[in-house]
């Protein structure tokens, strides 16, 4: 992910502070340590209402974009980088890298497997060297990403790759998600959440597609009647709390985290916030420095879902911090483990599938809805 691309690679470049270590949350009152293992599960799915409002928090780079302005990655480099995070092997006793699978996967194929990026970091030209066995997968997905021949390139919606060919900048599966949600009659909002610098351009491009019909593959998007707030917001974190700002809006966890949850639950249309990369880096790219996501399992009207390719079930190396309210209408939260909310409120994006399957995002959202309603009773054992 571009966010993942700014993961371990950037830690040496960023100044590192110390995490709080106080056992307090962003408002100074909440439990920060993720609690895994035996215990009460998140009491989700209290209502059989399958028409909850959906607030979808969607990462940009290597989630709906295959490029990254911060790292300077074009389409090919970004896709090659993603492949290094989903291809697995291990070091032999002789100190030689051995592949354990010929197929990319989000999760390790067996115990002891590590992904290539974790072992070697960022490696330019991956599929031309150590990862040459995955070259066919790269080429296949680049072909799918090609801007249709015969169509004039759009200055915002098409991007020239390192090979001189035109590629789609925003994945068609994202626009298909919007169409599917409207067709289902869903009440929903989209919030782009990125550490990077692509947010203003994405908001502008999506606004043109939705209001002017600028996307040649989706000329009927204006029929969806969706609005776009093109003013980027910011989310900044510190030991004192979380502050969200956008234009004249400003909400702080110092006034209680419930207010932040209510603000994010009340948004309409599409918009976005730049999250706080330096805070994540200062917390060693762990869950405690991640993009904040408030989850109220007692809310029968709103479900929040976060889609990001750098969500991982290793809380020492993940990008979203899910904070779960402990009581109905309460203010105290606890930081939940990623595994608790995986495919419920947290979706680890599979970029390859997001490219190849137009219905990918719609399917992932539906899986989260279904799992939310099932209440995770199997966790009680």
Distance between the termini: 35 Å
Q: By helix and strand content, what is the structural category?
A: alpha/beta
Assembly status: single chain
The main sheet orders its strands as 10-9-8-11-7-1-13-16
Helix content: 25-40%
- What's the Cα radius of gyration? 20 Å
- Poorly predicted ranges: 1-32, 44-49, 376-381
Order of helices and strands: HHEHEEEHHEEHEHEEEHEHEEEEHEHH
Total of helices: 12
Q: What is the tally of beta strands? A: 16
What is the 3D shape?
Answer: globular
Largest sheet: 8 strands, mixed
Task: Name the average pLDDT.
Answer: 88
Taken as a percent bin, the fraction of beta residues is 15-25%
How is this structure best summarized?
The protein is α/β, with parallel strands linked by helices and 381 residues long. The chain has helices at residues 2-5, 8-11, 75-85, 116-120, 135-145, 172-183, 199-212, 257-265, 277-282, 338-341, 351-356, 360-374, and strands at residues 53-58, 88-91, 97-99, 114-115, 158-160, 166-168, 188-194, 233-238, 241-246, 249-252, 269-274, 291-295, 302-308, 320-325, 333-335, 346-348. It is globular, with a radius of gyration of 20 Å.
Would you write up a description of this structure?
The chain is of the alpha/beta class and 381 residues long. The protein contains 12 helices and 16 strands. An 8-stranded mixed beta sheet has the order 10-9-8-11-7-1-13-16, with helices on both faces. β9 and β10 form a beta hairpin. The chain is globular and about 55 Å long.
Any chance you could write out the topology, listing elements then pairs?
Blueprint: H1 2-5, H2 8-11, E1 53-58, H3 75-85, E2 88-91, E3 97-99, E4 114-115, H4 116-120, H5 135-145, E5 158-160, E6 166-168, H6 172-183, E7 188-194, H7 199-212, E8 233-238, E9 241-246, E10 249-252, H8 257-265, E11 269-274, H9 277-282, E12 291-295, E13 302-308, E14 320-325, E15 333-335, H10 338-341, E16 346-348, H11 351-356, H12 360-374
Parallel strand pairs: 1-7, 1-13, 7-11, 8-11, 12-14, 13-16
Antiparallel strand pairs: 2-3, 2-4, 5-6, 8-9, 9-10, 14-15
């Amino acid at each position: 992910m571009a966010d993942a691309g700014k993961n371990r690679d950037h830690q040496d470049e960023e100044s590192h502070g110390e995490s709080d270590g106080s056992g307090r949350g962003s408002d100074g009152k909440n439990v920060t340590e993720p609690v895994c293992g035996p215990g009460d599960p998140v009491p989700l799915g209290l209502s059989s209402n399958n028409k909850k409002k959906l607030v979808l928090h969607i990462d940009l780079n290597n989630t709906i974009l295959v490029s990254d302005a911060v790292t300077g990655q074009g389409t090919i480099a970004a896709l090659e980088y993603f492949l290094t995070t989903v291809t697995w092997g291990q070091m032999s006793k002789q100190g030689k890298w051995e592949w354990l699978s010929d197929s990319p996967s989000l999760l390790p194929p067996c115990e002891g497997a590590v992904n290539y990026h974790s072992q070697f970091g960022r490696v330019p030209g991956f599929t031309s060297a150590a990862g040459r066995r995955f070259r066919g997968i790269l080429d296949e997905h680049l072909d799918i990403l090609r801007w249709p021949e015969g169509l004039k390139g759009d200055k915002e919606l098409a991007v020239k790759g390192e090979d001189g060919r035109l590629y789609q900048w925003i994945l068609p599966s994202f626009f298909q998600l919007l169409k599917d949600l409207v067709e289902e009659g869903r009440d929903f909002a989209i919030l782009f959440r990125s550490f990077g610098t692509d947010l203003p351009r994405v908001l502008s491009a999506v606004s043109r597609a939705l209001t002017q019909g600028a996307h040649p593959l989706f000329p009927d998007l204006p029929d969806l009647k969706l609005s776009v707030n093109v003013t980027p917001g910011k989310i900044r974190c510190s030991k004192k709390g979380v502050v969200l700002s956008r234009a004249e809006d400003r909400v702080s966890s110092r006034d209680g985290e419930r207010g932040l949850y209510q603000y994010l639950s009340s948004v309409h249309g599409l918009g976005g916030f730049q999250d706080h990369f330096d805070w994540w880096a200062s917390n060693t790219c762990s869950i405690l420095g991640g993009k904040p996501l408030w989850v109220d399992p007692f809310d029968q009207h709103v479900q929040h879902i976060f889609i990001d390719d750098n969500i991982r079930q290793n809380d020492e190396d993940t990008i979203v911090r899910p904070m779960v309210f402990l009581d109905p209408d309460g203010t105290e939260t606890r930081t939940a483990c990623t595994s608790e909310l995986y495919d419920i409120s947290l979706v680890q994006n599979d970029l390859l599938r997001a490219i190849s399957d137009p219905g990918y995002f719609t399917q992932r959202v539906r899986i989260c809805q279904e799992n939310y309603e099932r209440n995770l009773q199997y966790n009680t054992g």
